[in-house]
Amino acid sequence: MKRTIRTCCVALTLGLLWLSGCTSEKDPAPVNCEESDLQVGIDQVQNVSDCLAEDGGVTASAQGGQGDFEYSVNGVDFQASGEFTGLSAGNYVLTVRDAGECEVTSSFTVAVDGSLLAINSITATTAGCESDGGEIVVDASGEGELSYQLDNGTFQASNTFSGLTAGTYRVVVKDGAGCQIFAEKTILNGISYEQQVKEIITTNCAVDGCHNGDLGASLNWTVFSNVKEHADGIKRLTGNGSMPPSTSNQSLTQEQKDLIACWVEDGALNN
After folding, report:
1. Are residues 48 and 67 in the same domain?
2. Core-most of 52, 68, 89, 138, by most CB within 10 Å?
3. Does residue 202 sit within a domain?
4. How many other C-beta atoms can be found within 10 angstroms of the C-beta atom of residue 141?
5. CATH number at residue 83
6. How far does the signal peptide extend, from start to end residue (predicted)?
């Protein structure tokens, strides 16, 4: 029986450890970003000169953390400088990343000089795993009749968008004068680790002789921080059927695989 259990564990740690059975070999200790002192501040914001101009900008600076910093205003394209130009009116999230791959964010708004148009807040309802139950409601203010756009859709009078799957959406608000401002909002799947995912993982591999601490503290999958660190690998291996392997006489349902994937996509939250 232990041979079967260990085979499951091996499959679930492929790509994380070079092993052919449960051993005491470990990966290098990962950086614990929860203990990082990395910080970022917004030093200056330059508003755009008119409704459709792209002459806005921001300057930010970081401190703490490890090594050199990289900055991004879209979460994808990072650069060494904390200065960004050529921005349109909108609500932005600036991200700074250090050499240890830890990240922190700070929000800022590039407004239109002389305009009252503003997105005050956006609320989002979770979508559910593999579901389209998400909803976005926009609270905005400005002159004249306001209209609302989601991604590249048409503008509408309603400030509510329903029937949405998990993901990040771009919301644009336009006022009566034609001025526009945007913001982004993420809808989560809303999967709970404690109530939905934890039992799946612990039942399949946090067992005697394997990921219950017998191989060392960093491989103890009864500890949430260890599970979070390996979350991407767990998603990949459960999704492609490598865990549990066919030789283990164990299997996951498609629903269980989906729950793990949705939880990881939400950011592997401790919820």
Report:
1. yes
2. 89
3. yes
4. 12
5. 2.60.40.1080
6. 1-25
pLDDT of residue 134 exceeding 70, the answer is yes
Q: Given pLDDT bands bounded at 50, 70 and 90, which one contains residue 28? A: very low
Mean pLDDT of the region 43-50: 95
Q: What are the structure tokens assigned to 8, written together?
A: 């499951």
Are 44 and 73 within 8 A, CB to CB?
no
**Residue with token string 């030789």:** 247
Q: How many CB atoms lie within 10 A of CB 5?
A: 20
- 146 pLDDT higher than 80: yes
Among 142, 164, 187, identify where a domain stops.
Answer: 187
Q: How many whole angstroms separate alpha carbon 1 and alpha carbon 94?
A: 51
Last residue of a domain, one of 86, 110, 134: 110
Q: Please give the residue range of the domain that contains residue 43.
A: 33-110
For 70-85, write each residue's pLDDT tens digit.
999 988 899 999 999 9
- The reply to whether 130 and 168 lie within a common domain is yes
Q: Which residues of 104-138 are buried (b: 16+ CB within 10 A; e: fewer)?
A: bebebbbbbeebebbbeebebebbbbeeebbbbbb
Output the six-digit token pair for 52.
Answer: 């459709």
Nearest partner of 61 among 80, 45, 40, judged by Cα: 40
Under 8 Å CB-to-CB from 164, ≥6 apart: which residues?
A: 127, 132, 134, 135, 136, 187
**Distance (Å, whole) CA 178 – CA 270:** 43
What mean pLDDT do residues 26-37 have?
68
What is residue 265's predicted lDDT score, i.e. its pLDDT? 96
233: helix, strand or coil: helix
Least confident of 207-216, 248-257, 261-270: 207-216
* pTM, to two decimals: 0.79
